[in-house]
Amino acid sequence: MPMRMPTPRPVTTTTTTTLRRIAHAASAALTTTVLVLSVTPTHATSASTSVGLPGGNKIAVNAWHCSLYANACDWQASTKMSGNSPRRARWIQNRAELEAHGVEVSLSISKNPEATLTMVNKSLGVVRWRDTNARISDTSGQMRPSKGTVYVSTRSCGSAQVTGAIKVSEKCAYAGAS
Predict the structure, then answer these.
(1) Where are the alpha helices (DSSP H) in 40-176?
(2) How far apart are CA 35 and CA 33, in angstroms?
(3) Please, what sign has the CA dihedral across residues 23, 26, 32, 36?
(4) What pLDDT does residue 145 have?
(5) Cis (ω within 30 of 0) for the bond into 41?
């Protein structure tokens, strides 16, 4: 007895439209996933420290940089005052030490325009920014370490003159290998 093959169903407009919608939705989901993963840093090294002030304010010092990189590594450093007594410091400063670690390594650094950059040696740079009548002093940029670099580090140090009577000496946070 011969085997009977099922009769193929004709492709309808509804079937074609449904398949196109599924394909477009899958494409959109894939595109969104790729964009989110390429924009969002998936690995970072960070550190912070803070100190309480008379009147209830607080100064926080933060350091952040990427953990994984191919040619360049983004970095950020900040000194922030929170609280309302007073709302702003007379001046607030951040000093970031950016360093490449390894044998015979070098480092190039980019930074925001208002900050100053001093290269201490070929693998260590210091970025400094002081803001007046402000709550925050933050800097950011990119490190480009040489190929021999084992790891990079960011040491963020903050200080402030909050009022005539309240001065915060430099406090630091270190993000890097111990």
Answers:
(1) none
(2) 5
(3) negative
(4) 95
(5) no
- Give the SS3 label for residue 148: coil
Residue 72 burial (C-beta neighbours within 10 Å; 0-12, 13-18, 19+)? middle
Q: What's the pLDDT tens digit per position in 84-143?
A: 989 999 999 999 999 999 999 999 999 999 999 999 999 999 999 999 999 999 999 999
CA distance linking residue 119 with residue 54, whole number of Å: 36
| Distance between CA atoms of residues 78 and 47, nearest Å | 11
β-strand partners of 118:
126
Residue 158 to residue 64: CA distance in whole angstroms: 14
DSSP 8-state assignment for residue 166: -
Nearest 5°: the CA angle 40, 46, 47 is 155
Q: What's the whole-model pTM score?
A: 0.74
- Token readout for 29 is 């989901």
pLDDT digits (tens, 9 = 90+) for 152-162: 999 999 999 99
Cα distances (Å, whole numbers) of residue 125 to 44, 61, 71, 122, 164? 20, 18, 17, 8, 32
- CA–CA dist 150, 146 (Å, integer): 9
